[in-house]
Write a structure and sequence with these properties.
Structural class: mainly beta
Oligomer: single chain
Shape: globular
Largest sheet: 6 strands, antiparallel
Distance between the termini: 18 Å
Low-confidence stretches: none
Order of helices and strands: EEEEEEEEEEEEEEEEEEHEE
Strand content: 25-35%
Radius of gyration: 25 Å
Number of helices: 1
């Protein structure tokens, strides 16, 4: 189906889609003038940064033994200049992530940017590996998540306006405990135990913020002493909802303890597109009636 890129009313152009189109100027003739030759100009509209919601992204694997690293999958297209952030900071209660002083700052974070100049399609898997500097399989990264603990930890995914420096946690109001988180929380991975239900959070434990209780919002790998893990389930042949559900099911993960690292699998997901059929009701007919079209 054709996609509408822009509408024109007089000399005003309203952008309504992404892609390329041609805008043509024309002028009719009259008794004094012939019609002017039409002039066309091309208009290209590129996607802007993508604002994500819970269910749009998930962590797929991690290593807490050096070099620390992790992989994530995007379930939606990521426009150029989309920024996504990751931290092993935690939360002090299961209330809202943005509740005053509900954050535990002072740990590490990394900021990933789609600096490719192109849209990164849904189903793409991206890895980020600690180093000097940290590296990523696509786009670019600033800072590094080099403090993932092999005594249990979390990786939270979020977006936010804070810039952050090596001594200031991005979108956490204070580089310490407690701190107020001001971003938009998107996903949470906990390993080495379950999310806290009671007690005081430490640098290795965290409550799950209320937003992440949503479907596809989090996963907990509860085996004690887990130091690495990875989703090892299907990446093809399933609908988007089935893939999302599979990734947050611990039964589809392989984990390890003690020393060693795993090679993070960057194979993209192939998302089976859903289909539907619209079939209009059939009117009663009499034998001998003419053939008729289905709709």
């Amino acid at each position: 189906f054709p996609v509408t890129i822009a509408t024109v009313a007089g000399s005003t152009v309203t952008i309504v889609g992404v892609g390329s189109t041609t805008i043509t100027a024309s002028q009719a003739g009259d008794s004094n003038y012939d019609a002017a030759s039409s002039v066309g100009q091309s208009l290209t509209v590129t996607p802007g940064p993508t604002t994500l919601a819970i269910g749009d992204i998930a962590i797929l694997g991690f290593n807490s033994n050096a070099p620390d690293g992790f992989a994530f999958v995007t379930w939606v297209d990521l426009g150029p200049n989309t920024v996504i952030k990751f931290t092993d900071n935690g939360f002090l209660s299961s209330n809202s992530a943005t509740l005053d002083n509900n954050g535990r700052g002072g740990e590490n974070f990394v900021t990933w940017t789609n600096s490719t100049g192109s849209v990164i399609p849904a189903g793409t898997v991206i890895t980020i590996i600690d180093g000097t500097p940290a590296t990523t399989s696509q786009g670019s990264v600033a800072q590094k998540l080099n403090g993932i603990s092999n005594s249990g930890d979390q990786i939270f995914v979020y977006q936010g306006a804070g810039a952050g420096t090596s001594t200031s946690n991005s979108d956490f109001g204070a580089n310490g405990n407690p701190s107020t988180f001001t971003g938009t929380i998107l996903f949470g991975l906990n390993f080495g135990g379950d999310w806290l239900g009671t007690g005081t959070a430490s640098s290795n434990t965290s409550y799950r913020p209320s937003q992440l209780a949503a479907t596809y919002g989090s996963i907990a790998l509860t085996t004690a002493s887990t130091t690495r893990g990875q989703y090892t389930g299907a990446r093809t042949g399933l609908t988007l909802a089935q893939l999302k559900a599979a990734v947050v099911d611990p039964a589809n993960w392989t984990t390890g303890t003690s020393t060693g690292v795993i090679t993070l699998n960057a194979t993209a997901f192939t998302i089976a597109q859903s289909q539907s059929i619209t079939f209009a009701a059939l009117d009663a007919k009499t034998y001998g009636d003419s053939s008729f079209a289905l709709s």
